[in-house]
Amino acid sequence: MSEKPLISVTNIKTYFPIYGGVFSRQVGDVKAVDGLSFDIYEGEIFGLVGESGCGKSTVGRTILRLLDPTAGKVKFRDDILFSVEENERLSEEKMRLLRRDMQIIFQDPFASLDPRMNVSNIVSEGLIAHKLAKRSEAVEIAIDLLERCGIAGENAGKYPHEFSGGQRQRISIARALSFNPKFIVCDEPIAALDVSIQAQILTLMQELKEEFNLTYLFISHDLGVVRYFCDRIGVMYLGNFVETGTSEQLFDNPLHPYTKALLSSMPLLDSGLEMERIILKGSVPSPANPPSGCKFHTRCPFVFEKCKMEKPEMIEVEPEHWVACFLVENSSENQNEG
C-alpha cells in the first residue's frame, strides 16, 4: 500500500433541498453527508459501514462527482475534482478524461445494465465512446475481460436478462475494468446476491485488485464482509464518521458506543468470545432534522449533558484509530493525568 493518498476527501457535505409550501420554496435540507474527511491510499480497500440512510452511497457518488457537493474538497492524486469553498472545479473535459481512472460498481447489476445491449457491447461501449479502441478491437477486449471475470466468451452475445444475478455483477465488474481504472467505488456490490455467490464475487474482486493494482472504496452494511475484505474502515452515522481505524482496531477494540452496538449484532462463528448484545433504543433521526450536539446522543446508552450540547471532534486514540466521542475523550484525558 502506497504512503501517498490516491483520494483525499476534506470536509465534504452533500445536502438535498426540501421544497414545500404554496410556492414550493426551499424549506430545509436533507443532510446526507455532513462534513466528512478521510484519505484512501493507493492499493488499499477502504470500507464504509453504517445503517441504511447514513449517507454511505452518497459519499461514493459525491467523490465521483455523480452528485453535486454542497461543500468540501476532493482530490484525485494532484487533480482537484472540486473545491466548493475555493470555487474550483475540474473542467468537464478534464473530468471526462479522469473518469477512465475512476469507476463504480452499483448494487443492482440488472438496473445498471442496458437491457437492449448484449454484454460484449455493454463492456466495450465506453472504450468506443472514449475512442480508446476501434469497435472490433473493443469487442475483443470486452470478451477477454468477461472471461477474466468468469463469463465464458461464447456468452458475450447474450443479453442481461439471460444471466443470473451473480453473473450480471461479474459483467458490471468487467465493464468497470474496461478503462483499466485506478480507483473503483463498490456500492454494496454483493448486497443483492446469495451468500454463496457473495463469496465468489469477493474472491474475484480480490484477485482483480492484485492483478490490476486497484484501489477500492467498499460500501457495505455487512460487517462480516468488511472485517475480512477491507484494510481500513469508517463507521458512519447520520452523515458523519463516529470511528475510523484498521479492520483489526475496529473489531478487536471498538470504542464508540455505536460501533460496539453494530458489532454486538454480528454472529460470532469463528470465536469463543461473546459480546454483550447492545439494543439501541428508538430509530435513526431524520437527516433533515438531525439532533444537536452528538448526533448519536438520542440513542446512546451512555449519554450525558455535554453530548446534547456539543459536537465531539474526531480524536486519535492510537495511530490510525480515530473516535468522535466525549466518553472516550474523557477516558483518554484521565489516563494522561494518571
Poorly predicted spans: none
CATH architecture, by name, is 3-Layer(aba) Sandwich
Round the mean pLDDT to the nearest integer and report it.
Answer: 90
Major sheet: 8 strands, mixed
Which CATH top level class fits? Alpha Beta
Overall 3D shape: globular
SSE order, as H and E?
EEEHEEEHEHHHHEHEHEEHHHEEH
For the termini, the CA-CA separation is 37 Å
Which topology does CATH recognise? Rossmann fold
DSSP, total strands: 13
Total tally of structural domains: 1
| CATH superfamily caption | P-loop containing nucleotide triphosphate hydrolases
Number of helices: 12
Describe the protein's architecture and organization.
The two termini are 37 Å apart. β5 and β6 (88-89) form a beta hairpin. This protein has one domain (5-116, 159-337): P-loop containing nucleotide triphosphate hydrolases (Rossmann fold, 3-Layer(aba) Sandwich), CATH 3.40.50. The longest helix has 18 residues, at 195-212. The chain has helices spanning 56-63, 92-98, 109-112, 119-129, 135-148, 165-177, 195-212, 223-229, 247-252, 257-264, 305-309, 326-337; strands at residues 5-20, 25-41, 45-49, 71-76, 79-83, 88-89, 102-105, 183-187, 215-219, 232-237, 240-246, 315-318, 321-323. It contains twelve helices and 13 strands. By secondary structure, it is an alpha/beta fold. An eight-stranded mixed sheet has the order 7-8-9-3-10-11-13-12, sandwiched between helices. The protein has a five-stranded antiparallel sheet with strand order 2-1-4-5-6. The mean pLDDT is 90.
